[in-house]
Write a structure and sequence with these properties.
It is a single chain. With about 625 residues, this protein is an alpha/beta fold. Among the domains are: about 65-185 and about 210-220, Leucine-rich repeat, LRR (right-handed beta-alpha superhelix) (Alpha-Beta Horseshoe), CATH 3.80.10; about 225-365, Ribonuclease Inhibitor (Leucine-rich repeat, LRR (right-handed beta-alpha superhelix)); about 525-624, Alpha-Beta Horseshoe (Leucine-rich repeat, LRR (right-handed beta-alpha superhelix)). Helices cover about 30% and strands about 10% of the residues. The chain contains 24 helices and 22 strands. It has a 20-stranded parallel sheet, with no helix packed on it. A two-stranded parallel sheet has the order 7-8. Strand 5 (about 155), helix 8 (about 165-175) and strand 6 (about 180-185) form a beta-alpha-beta unit. The longest helix has 14 residues, at about 75-90. The relative contact order is 0.04.
Length: about 625
């Protein structure tokens, strides 16, 4: 039955990207159907080489991919022709163009502008060759061309441009009349510079005073600003917040080391319409700031507080005041009593929360995870990496309630065992009636008492699996209402260094048709038998990390090579039993492999790696 191409394209909309790639290889008609513009809305094409060849460009007009990234472009005539041809081919539907880190020059950039009439996102980050002379858009003809070509640009990224000056920034912004987002991350902005003697804009420095003037002119449209990794101060934040008519919705201040509580508090009191706020790495931020955020910016959709170590659970209780919050991220939070964290989530007031990232937070306990899973079944992303107090009890709550999860990271949660993944509940003599560990194991903070550190304690024999044989575990697993298999929508699963997981779990629970990213690094009990189950039951895998799994041999890697045809990235470092035979199989079966890590594999030789590189055209990164 020969279906029309339009019908085939409609059917392909119900497939994920990996499945569409496989379907496109069936025949020419299916390949043509896979090129429908509607299927490439979220697909970006990246060119990493300046080498020019007309052959791969002939069919580009059929791929109406709206996102294009070009890197490693130098100033040669060959690269110039390549750049212009690619932009010409994509010009009709091109919406996003990234030249990040490329060596594009002024003449090359001006030449390609005629093909950028439909671009809405332009990334010129780290384009130092473009800004070095400071003459970009210096002439009237250049400005007219820029205004005509960049009229639709709404988001402009100028990060890491060391030669950016007041005069140059003003000319660039003047060519983008509809700008809504401006990113100046890691630019050398002088916040205390004040040249009152000159009436002209500086051609050597980028000053905060001139930035305020530009913001004042564009306040009616500008809603996004990124000043990450700059030396912005609390007083500068106050001046920024007071710009007349400025109503920011997205504000990013990652790793701004001089920003403290007072500056952020004053800022959010004025800019109370924020939807996205990122204060990650601002190490002076503490509880007063979080409390002010929760009371002032009630419209927040996304809040990121990564590596703000002064924040404690006392202020996190106020998160319940943000009913529209969808994404919350905090890491390395060590202070406070976990009960305050539970209180902030137990009311279920964060009804829109779909993404929660809390890596390296020792305040996360089983009680909190149980509360979270029960009240927020809509969660799609959960990152609890290095939350060392998480045990099987917490994981059972996750598998029972969070069936919408597409991303789950539990790296370094070393208390997880087969029992939790299989859904088996077991109360041993050292647990209380709820299956939790004694309260002294859940206390936060630190102590100088050697008796509490464990120097004078006898050896502990609290392994839960010792009370059950494998047959008993399987019997109880068959009766389980929920286990890892309940999370059917997983695309990303990270169980790095969960050292108590054995082949029993890999055989019974690792069966996901859409799983693309799997890290089981340092799972020491994984053998060839378990790896066979993983590869056989997860055919969509594109990234696999089995580094430091010392029982893996060539037999296990043979399963990987033959079963995982979609594999793009493979990490297999420090596998002492793996030889050159594995690389031979990979060169035959894994033709899409883009990156491989074989470092510390003592039986793999340099000559074998070189042969692999010659056979796999797609292979670009080799770590050895």
């Amino acid at each position: 039955m020969n279906l029309p191409t339009e019908i085939l394209s409609y059917i392909f909309e119900f497939l994920n990207f990996g499945d569409r790639q496989e379907a496109a290889l069936v025949c020419k008609r299916w390949h043509d159907a896979s090129l429908h513009p509607g299927l490439h809305k979220n697909v970006s094409i990246l060119y990493e080489t300046p080498v020019y060849s007309e052959t791969p460009l002939k069919n580009l007009p059929r791929r109406r991919t709206p996102h294009l990234a070009l890197s490693q472009v130098d100033c040669s005539n060959n690269s110039k022709k390549f750049l212009l041809d690619v932009c010409m081919y994509f010009s009709e539907g091109l919406q996003s163009l990234s030249l990040k880190g490329s060596g594009v020059t002024e003449s090359m950039f001006m030449g390609m502008l005629v093909y950028c009439a439909n671009v809405t996102h332009l990334d010129l980050s780290a384009c130092n060759s473009l800004c070095m002379s400071g003459k970009l858009f210096e002439t009237n003809d250049g400005i007219n061309l820029g205004q005509a070509s960049l009229n639709n640009v709404q988001h402009l990224y100028l990060n890491l441009n060391r030669y950016l000056s007041d005069a140059l920034l003003s000319r660039i912004v003047s060519c983008v009349p509809n700008i809504r987002g401006l990113s100046l991350a890691a630019c050398n902005i002088l916040f205390n510079y004040n040249d009152s003697h000159s009436k002209n804009l500086s051609v050597t420095v980028l000053s905060f005073k001139n930035l305020l003037n530009l913001l004042t002119v564009n306040t009616s449209l500008l809603v996004m600003l990124d000043l990450s990794r700059t030396n912005i101060t609390n007083s500068a934040l106050g001046a920024l917040a007071s710009v007349p008519g400025l109503r920011l919705q997205t504000f990013v201040l990652q790793n701004c080391r001089q920003v403290g509580n007072s500056g952020v508090i004053d800022f959010v009191k004025v800019q109370d319409n924020l939807h996205h706020l990122d204060l990650g790495g601002c190490h002076l931020i503490g509880d007063p700031c979080v409390t002010a955020l929760c009371s002032s910016t009630v419209q927040l959709y996304s809040l990121k507080l990564k590596k703000c170590r002064l924040i404690s659970t006392v202020s996190l209780e106020n998160l319940s005041s943000l009913p529209k919050l969808k994404h919350f991220e905090i890491s390395e939070c060590y202070q406070g009593d976990p009960k305050w964290l539970i209180k902030g989530f137990e009311m279920g007031t964060l009804g829109n929360l779909t993404s929660l990232h809390m890596p390296s937070c020792t305040i996360v306990t089983d009680a909190f995870v149980c509360c979270l899973a029960e009240h927020y079944p809509q969660l799609e992303e959960l990152d609890l990496s290095s939350c060392i107090l998480l045990t099987d009890t917490g994981f059972l709550a996750i598998s029972k309630h969070l069936h919408q999860l597409t991303l789950l990271r539990l790296a370094w949660c070393q208390e997880l065992t087969d029992l939790g993944l299989l859904g088996v509940t077991l109360q041993s003599f050292d647990n209380d009636g709820n299956g939790n560990k004694p309260s002294d194991a859940l206390t936060s903070g630190f102590t100088h008492s050697h008796s509490n550190i464990g120097f004078f304690k006898g050896p502990s024999f609290d392994s839960k699996t010792k009370y059950l044989t494998e047959t008993e575990i399987l019997s109880k697993a068959n009766e389980a209402n929920a286990n890892l298999l309940s999370l059917k929508k997983l695309n990303v699963l990270d169980l790095t260094a969960c050292k108590s997981i054995t082949d029993l779990s890999f055989h019974r629970c690792f069966q996901f048709k859409d799983l693309q990213f799997l890290s089981i690094k340092m799972c020491n009990f994984l053998t060839d038998k378990g790896l066979h189950s993983v590869t056989f039951n997860n055919p969509a895998l594109q990234m696999l990390d089995i580094s430091h799994c010392h029982q893996i041999t060539d037999i296990g890697l043979a399963y990987v090579a033959k079963k995982l045809s979609r594999l793009i990235t493979l990490h297999m470092s420090n596998l002492d039993l793996v030889t050159n035979a594995t690389l031979e199989l990979i060169s035959i079966y894994n033709l899409r492999l883009n990156k491989i890590d074989v470092s510390l594999c003592r039986k793999i030789t340099v000559s074998a790696v070189q042969r692999l590189q010659t056979k796999l055209v797609a292979l670009k990164v080799v770590n050895m």
